[in-house]
Amino acid sequence: MQTDELTGRVREFLAAHDPAGTQRLDFLRARFDAGLAWVSFPVGLGGLGLSRAAQPAVDAAFAAAGAPDNDPLSIGIGLGMAAPTILRHGTDEQRQRWLRPLWTGEEVWCQLFSEPGAGSDLAALGTRAVRGTGPDGTDGWIVNGQKVWTSMAHQARWAILLARTDPDLPKHQGITYFVCDLTHPGVDVRPLRQITGEAEFNEVFLTDVWIPDGYRLGGVGEGWRVAQTTLMNERVAIGGGAVPREAGMIGALSRTWRERPELRGPGTHDALMKLWVAAEAGRLAATRLREQLAAGQPGAEGSAVKYAFARLNQEVSGFELELLGADGLTYDDWTMRRPSHVDWENRSPGYRYLRAKGNSIEGGTSEILCNIIAERVLGLPPEPRADKDVAWKDLPR
Amino acid sequence: MSTLLYSDVEEDLRASVRQALDRPAGGDAWRALATGIGCAGLAVPEEFGGAGASWREAAVVAEEVGRAAAPVPWLGSVLGTAALTTAAVGTAAVDTAAPLSAGARDLLPAVASGDLLAVLVLPLSTPPGAPVPATVRADGHALTGSVTTVADAQGAGVLIVPTPDGLYAVDAAHAEQTPVTALDQTRPLSTVTFSSAQATRLGDGAMAGAAWAAALRIGAAVLAGEQLGVAEWCLSSTVDYVKTRYQFARPVGSFQAVKHRLAQLWVDVTQARAVARYAAGCVADDDPDAAVAASLAQAHCGPVAVRAAEECVQLHGGIGFTWEHRAHWYLKRAKAAAIALGTATQHRAALGDLVSLPPN
Ligand SMILES: Cc1cc2nc3c(=O)[nH]c(=O)nc-3n(C[C@H](O)[C@H](O)[C@H](O)COP(=O)(O)OP(=O)(O)OC[C@H]3O[C@@H](n4cnc5c(N)ncnc54)[C@H](O)[C@@H]3O)c2cc1C
Predict the structure, then answer these.
(1) Where do the Acyl-CoA oxidase/dehydrogenase middle domain residues begin and end (chain A) (predicted)?
(2) Is A234 a catalytic residue?
(3) Residue A12, Cβ neighbours under 10 Å: how many?
(4) Whether domain A227-377 has CATH 1.10.645.10
(5) What is the pTM of this model?
(6) Residue B125 lies inside a defined structural domain of this protein
(7) I want to staple B282 with a disulfide (CB 3.0 to 4.6 A). Which of B287, B339, B340, B353 is the partner?
(8) Which residue segment(s) compose the domain that B308 sits in?
(9) Which member of B256, B263, B296 has the closest CB to residue A378?
(10) CA–CA separation, B261 vs B162, rounded Å?
């Protein structure tokens, strides 16, 4: 479908659904049903089966008409990670049940992957799922364990969850991928305060939590393979978005430089321009990655984009604090809050500096990304490993 | 913005160039490239016998030239051709009220066919935004003066000489060339001296300025392609080497200290590819962002190529330090290319002016 035809459809849709006169949720649901939500998704699931490259024109046309959006910053885990996994590995029934309210933002999603004993080594996770019978007498799973660093669990209705279904197999083989209803009894979400003072993330205790078998994504024991879809998409989702020049942290820094000439100095100018160049290089690399994915080419660059995003954010925010001098010694607010998204724009430079420290940890640490690039992209030999063929229950920990 | 990917036509061009440069020594690689494949005319408009392609394709050629560290005068040819096409047809950025150059139009067909190598006479280290140098003076139709470290002039048929009061063409036979012992032996440098050399006036001072500025910008963008090619060769040959070199009963490429350095280099090369493609696209389309894109490309790709070459030497160990191994050609080419057409620091300073981030 040509761009003209597509934007024509958006116009027709807007003619039939006046953004000003329609309830926000009704508008978003209708947009989903018209296939104009994520146009690369199949017909009937919010899309038109088009290339991802067609999306920006659609979003721009809706934005230009002043239409309400689905507040993508607050539902990033659903849009960026849960949705592609449900699409790829879910049954028709699962896709029909979950994708629409996920996209409209009616139902927020979170990711129950990391555990106290399983971070980088995610496949070592120990949360157990055993077969059981539900309150309604149907087949399903009883889950026990502890998850940690769970972003936005306090907002979420659903979680994507990895649990061990067979501890006698080597660690990658005994994992199954589930969707967990966080309203079920036995789910206990507790805030974890982080270095910024607020609590975006949580620890989540699961005690005899019931999960119907119909909430399983992929086969029993197939969880690691299914999780790859989530993790690959997570890396593109972090730092891979389409943004204009000087978006994000470099924009804040450039504004400070322009508005406060008294801060300028000979040594700092070259440092500023180095960061500006790095930001622009990262932005163009992300643009090229999106073009590759739209053209159906493998996007091994996804890990590169996430790695570079973390490095850049940390350098830019660290430089900004030093440039500010006396103002760099201050912080906006240490109050413990429960935010609904990361507010890079409106919080202070000190917040940006601290929050950016998470960028090289969340979604795979920078060290792990380097391992992935080295082994899967460059084909370098793996480290000698002691854990591959050992039953999970016999691993040292 | 045009695509940052390569078209099928560009991939075909790449394959032909790679094959031509791979030919055993003794064959004339430059002839094969310039006339055989027709690279000389790639960015020359069809009305002057060119292929009517663009600087985007020229940048693909540069990538392969860099990958082979080939001693062919591609950069010199690009700078000369860019100056001539600008004089002949103008650019969007230039005030086209100036009459276009008939002299340049006369020269272009022979340049496009590859029979005449036209090289722009400028010090290779000229930074972005530099004014036309006043080291050569015109007296009627005779030029006098001298320019140091001119690249690729030794095989040139015609020298294009910008001066503050006009753009000139000089038959190379009418100039004296003194070769310089260059750090990068794959790109010959010479001092070019004119002693009342007979010259053809191609245009006035305004045209000289326009041709000069366009050539510097296009040269910077195409050179970024070459730097990308250098970096890619260094990365891939190092990856190949560390997979097969055993120490401590393991391939050295299985040590994480080595892997992470190469992974980080790959990230930088990935960015360099996007940045170089963007610059090539901008100069090809005469985009308003071309000056930013060209300086961005030099500020990013120059240092990436140098780091790739330095890592290549280091991770090859002793063998990488030998004359016998090819690594040193790339190191020298990368370091010299990082100075050519302005250092990264100079391009960052230029960018500051272009994007309203002033130094003080
Ligand atoms: C802000 C934030 C939000 C998060 N949100 C979520 C979420 O919503 N859901 C979720 O499931 N998880 C979430 N996480 C968790 C995150 O995925 C993990 O913290 C991360 O994978 C690292 O695990 P770890 O903390 O156990 O560190 P460890 O794995 O213990 O790592 C400690 C250090 O050792 C290094 N290291 C470990 N293994 C290797 C190796 N093989 N080679 C080299 N170095 C190595 C690491 O890079 C790190 O520097 C979040 C984390 C943060 C910071």
Answers:
(1) 110-209
(2) yes
(3) 12
(4) no
(5) 0.93
(6) no
(7) B287
(8) 210-354
(9) B263
(10) 44
